[in-house]
Design goal:
- There is one protein chain.
- The longest helix has 20 residues.
- A six-stranded antiparallel beta barrel has the order 12-15-14-13-16-17. It has a five-stranded parallel beta sheet with strand order 3-2-1-4-7, with helices on both faces.
- It contains eight helices and 17 strands.
- The protein is α/β, with parallel strands linked by helices and about 350 residues long.
Length: about 350
């Protein structure tokens, strides 16, 4: 009897080819699009055509018909609202910079979709992510970087659990983006020439602050720009408009380049300094999730990324409390940002990751 796999079809090239690859490998494939988008006015459909836009449903349905697999749309709007948008808003209000895609992967695309898939008798769920699921000799599941560093998405998936990984397939991770695109062209898939989605799906114009204001019904409260000594330099528009390391769009001219060094929620202050001031040698992170190991028995040397497009850096990690990890870099790192993920690698494997709490000087 064929093993059954539910493939999350986003309407894009990667997930479409993933479904084809799994069918070719002999799985009983079911296509599912997760309806998580909140605005359903017709004029929104074209504007929000990324991985979560409503137009994705039409594209995914066409792909499923072409591949001759069953296709369903599942409504996950409540889960998305509760676990992603609410988290996104709360983090910005706390002067932290969230990563909503990581929350969406963990709590919506995996936790919710996997539960429903297992409930209908599926053995696995699958996505078009550029990553590889591996079972290690120690019996634990982890992620291995994809065949192409340029598209690797393991950073955004570090928070998956052992249970989730054991029921996950990621066939696209074995190929480069060019190879996946060529598969789609050779197959004449309806979405073969569709461009990749870039923006966060519910912030298509990149205006994070307006989303926070719309969700809370509150306007951001202006406050002071200050220097490292607390001297007032000018006025800011509200802390939700800024992130650590930011230089552009500050709306202040001081005759020299300045960067956001810190954001002080209680004082409603944005601290500005030089580029050198943005560097720090270490960080503390919480909400730790280990993959390749069950726990740390002592200090461990790893390679860590502190944001999605960070090249990564050598460091030592050690637990300093039950759910607190200290990360000490061999060289100071730029723009260590509270709220972002720090993800640990050993060779090409994900050791685990955590949420940055604060930098340590």
């Amino acid at each position: 009897m064929k093993e059954k796999v539910v493939v999350g079809l986003s309407g894009g090239v990667d997930s479409s080819v993933a479904a084809w690859l799994l069918k070719k490998q002999g799985y009983d494939v079911i296509g599912v699009t997760m309806q998580i988008w909140q605005d359903e006015e017709p004029e929104e459909v074209e504007e929000n055509g990324g991985c979560c836009g409503l137009s994705a449903v039409d594209d995914a349905r066409r792909v499923a018909q072409y591949l001759d697999i069953p296709y369903y749309v599942m409504n996950f709007k409540k889960e998305f609202k509760d676990c992603v948008i609410r988290y996104f808003v709360d983090e910005y209000k706390e002067a932290r910079t969230p990563n909503p895609c990581i929350a969406c992967n963990r709590y919506v695309k995996w936790e919710s979709l996997l539960k429903r898939s297992l409930d209908i008798g599926a053995d696995y769920i699958a996505t078009g992510h550029y990553a590889r699921v591996m079972k290690l000799p120690n019996g634990r599941y982890t992620l291995k970087k994809s065949a192409t560093d340029a598209k690797d998405q393991t950073y955004a998936l570090y928070n998956l659990t052992q249970h989730q990984l054991s029921h996950t397939l990621m066939p696209v991770g074995e190929y480069t983006k060019d190879e996946i695109r060529q598969f789609a062209l050779d197959l004449n898939l309806p979405v073969a020439n569709k461009p990749d989605s870039q923006d966060i799906c519910f912030v298509p114009d990149g205006d994070y602050a307006s989303v926070v204001e719309a969700e809370t019904g509150e306007k951001a409260v202006p406050g002071n720009f200050v220097d490292l000594d607390g001297n007032v330099l000018g006025r800011h528009k509200g802390i939700i408009h800024y992130t650590i390391g930011q230089r552009k769009g500050l709306g202040i001219a001081l005759g020299k380049p300045v960067f956001v060094v810190d954001i002080k929620k209680e004082a409603n202050e944005v601290v500005l300094g030089s580029n050198e001031d943005v560097y720090a040698p270490a960080l503390i992170a919480d909400r730790v999730n280990f993959m390749s190991v069950e726990k740390l028995d002592g200090p461990m040397e790893v390679f860590a990324k502190i944001r999605y497009n960070h090249r990564g850096a050598s460091c030592t990690i050690e637990m300093i409390d039950e759910d607190l990890v200290k990360v000490t870099f061999k060289e100071p790192q730029r723009a260590i940002t509270p709220g972002q993920a720090v993800v640990f690698y050993e060779d090409d494997y994900v050791v685990g990751g955590a949420t940055i709490l604060r930098k340590v000087m």
